[in-house]
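Q: what does this look like with flavin mononucleotide bound?
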Amino acid sequence: MYIDEKAKILENKHISGKTWLLRLEAPKIASTVKPAQFVMIKATEDFQYDPLLRRAFAVADVKDKELLIFYDVYGKGTKSITTKKAGEEIYILGALGKKLFPENYDYYLLVGGGIGFAGLSLFMKYLKNIGKPFKAIYGVRRKEQLSMLDWIKENGFENDVIIYTEDGSFGEKGLVTKDLKKFIIGKKNISLAVCGPKKMMKAVVEEVKDLKIPVYLSLESKMACGFGICIGCVIKNIKENTYQRVCYEGPVFNAEEINIEDF
Amino acid sequence: MKQVKNLDTSLSFELFGIKFKNPVWTASGCFSYGLEVAENLYDISKLGAVVVKGLSYKPRAGNPPQRIVETPCGMLNSIGLQNPGVEYFAKNILPKLREYDTVIIANVFGEDEEEYLKVAEFLDKTDGVHALELNVSCPNVKKGGIAFGSDPDTLYSLVSKLKQITSKPLLVKLSPNITNILDTATACVEAKADGLVLINTLLGMAIDVEKEEPILAMKTGGLSGPAILPIAVRMIYQVYEKYGASVPIIGVGGITTAEDALQHILAGAVAVQIGTANFYDPYAPLKVIEGLEKHLERKGYKHFLEVVGKAHKLKLK
Ligand SMILES: Cc1cc2nc3c(=O)[nH]c(=O)nc-3n(C[C@H](O)[C@H](O)[C@H](O)COP(=O)(O)OP(=O)(O)OC[C@H]3O[C@@H](n4cnc5c(N)ncnc54)[C@H](O)[C@@H]3O)c2cc1C
Ligand SMILES: Cc1cc2nc3c(=O)[nH]c(=O)nc-3n(C[C@H](O)[C@H](O)[C@H](O)COP(=O)(O)O)c2cc1C
Ligand code: FES
């Protein structure tokens, strides 16, 4: 079931750069959400039509009745979300997304770029809870963009996450692809779970191509509804030669199913 | 034209022999085939009718992405009528949809006259489809669609032929991308269409100022949402002014609330369709139903049909 829940804002604060953190009390959605799922947030009051459409955000963490979201500010929708204060209410539809990361592998390598790491954090927590071995790579350009660093520390993932900055201002210097193969070689029945900017996802897929291991990408696309009724958010499934809805047949796709140039 | 009759509740009525629980339907392309909502959100039996996504004879892949972009108080789409074809629909989707107690209306599309006729012929024999809505107004496909919807003679010829091959009620959905809506409306009435659906989307474009190129892959798209409400209301008003209650009008365009729906109804619509609002407010159709009931009660009306066309002060045929 999808729920359109009036969530209470517990915290809405600027972290650094263009990234904000939103903590919501949404007991109904919180009780159903699974890793890689997302919510559609209505940025406006009732009967305000600009911005018109809801915006999609990954659920980065769930604690009891609470959802945690990290969001980058670009345009009308996210700007108007920044104006919401703690105590105010906001409509969120969730938990959305039907095809999630498969659970049948023995080892997972998570690769997140920028805000895309928020699309993997809940999966990481889940893997830890069920005791599945994994490592996570978190890459950004500069230290200031490590918006989930505090969360990583607070939740005890320091030893599970390897951080890369392009300018070397924190952690390892370089791109997430730099040591990627090192983390893969020798691991049996491994799969990759990737979320981040197009360029980064493309580079990851290219880098591991010759290893022939399954790569799962959590995709984004422009969404009008987020729950399958507009057929607007499609990506071409090259195996079936059809356009599939990222919100309903995804958001997770096997890299083999899609043409990396398409998104 | 068959007359509209009152039934038992303030919103139920009968139109071309079909009983509708209420005059609130979902618009084609804005509700998929109904199952996503039925399975994940609410009981679609509460709706007056579900108008399914456009169906062609051959499956259509649709347009490449980016297919949608938000605009001030609206959005542009260029889905390109992606659909699995009418046979697949009848075999794999319709049986599930029929489990819900609502009226099912099929939106019919063809690239040429032959395809329109084939789809209609097929649906005429398909149990569970109550009526057909002819889409001659899609701005997002190269062939068919709007080519039929903008020329009154072509439209007259198509509707006449379709009327001969189907015994089911035939509604024609008109394009607003035309100078005078009465030209195409009149062609449909003369060709004996059972009702008119007003309006489809308006052709538009949005440009990315950084990339300096149109945002949609197909460059242009159809504008929908609150931004088009006054255009729909004006066109319904114009058609009702000419034909009055003799031609059933189904209003669509920019409806989010019961007040918006009432504007359509007061202008002359006997039923309304909710489109884009489903995207940002999934419960919008149910809220409109509830709002209409409340409005009628507050104003002391026994039935919504008393309000249809009431904004016209002039004497009507
Ligand atoms: C399934 C899913 C999960 C998502 N999860 C998250 C998340 O956890 N955190 C997060 O911050 N975002 C996430 N996004 C992206 C987020 O939905 C968009 O960034 C947001 O909708 C932008 O809205 P806006 O109002 O700021 O910009 P708009 O008004 O939509 O656009 C304004 C301008 O900014 C550009 N723009 C918009 N979004 C982006 C972007 N993401 N990157 C670069 N340019 C952009 C547009 O092209 C346009 O030119 C997710 C998207 C999807 C589909
Ligand atoms: C994403 C999308 C897809 C649509 N697909 C169809 C379609 O397949 N057939 C059709 O006749 N109209 C289609 N329409 C038009 C709507 O049914 C409706 O006429 C229009 O959107 C105006 O109503 P609204 O403002 O309530 O959305 C589509 C509209 C949208 C936004
Ligand atoms: S966003 Fe509407 S179908 Fe995916």
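Chain A touches chain B at residues 1-2, 4, 42, 47, 49-54, 76, 93, 221-225, 227-236, 241-243, 248, 262 (CB under 8 Å). The mean pLDDT of chain A is 96.
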